[in-house]
Amino acid sequence: MDYGLKGHVAIVTGSTSGIGLAMAGALAAEGVNLVINGLGDPAAIETERAGLAQKHGVEVRYHGADMTKGDQIADMVAFAEKEFGRLDILVNNAGIQFVSPIEAFPVEKWDQIIAINLTSAFHAIRAATPGMKKAGRGRIINIASAHGLVASPFKSAYVAAKHGILGLTKTVALELAEAGITANSICPGYVHTPLVDGQIKDTAKARGMSEDEVVRNVILAAQPTKKFVTFDQLAGLLLYLASDMGASVNGAALSVDGGWTAG
């Protein structure tokens, strides 16, 4: 399917691994030029950047904006517009997790999670909006979570941030609808990322369970399908929302969670 995105420009935050890297790859495969962003070994990031560019025949730049720093996020948007002359798609994906009972939740971890998972999206949207308004078109796609719709214990900061992302998305959608700009949230269930893989191994060791038991009875307990959401499934929705086909989807929180939030 041709999504009509060739030559468009996207920023994908938190795109040096996991969901973000997969989303960047899906956009690049459609001919979208990219600014990727995230943490990691500089040599490994350069390998990923060059690999995306070579594989898909697109231009890919890296910007190392710290997602806790609003001025750096604004600079990343300005960098994309300077490098490519436009910014069509903004994918706010950067996120971290920390698990703790509320009475013991470290204040610095709360502040960090809210900054990276929620406030960074505000800064990026704020910076990207003027250019998108001038162009008369834009797509803002926020990677939220099933935890934007339901809660789990011991994840107070993450759940609060993801609920906040949905509220931010709705507000932006209403403000910018007449400018030809849409804002939507994708709410994935569990995806088998390196982060989740580490969680599986740690839980298996801590509970004396096999990794298969952890996957089915702990990680995927809330997902009725008992299957991980795949990168391709998320990418299909991302491309739809980024294309003209998704122009009338605005302010939505779209679940891709195997039925987790159906009950």
UniProtKB/TrEMBL annotation:
Top-level enzyme category: oxidoreductase
SUPFAM superfamilies: NAD(P)-binding Rossmann-fold domains (SSF51735)
Molecular function per GO: 3-hydroxybutyrate dehydrogenase activity
InterPro entries according to UniProt: 3-OHbutyrate_DH, NAD(P)-bd_dom_sf, Sc_DH/Rdtase_CS, SDR, SDR_fam
UniProt keyword annotation of Oxidoreductase present: yes
EC number: 1.1.1.30
Keywords of this entry: Oxidoreductase
Sequence similarity: Belongs to the short-chain dehydrogenases/reductases (SDR) family.
Listed name of the protein: 3-hydroxybutyrate dehydrogenase
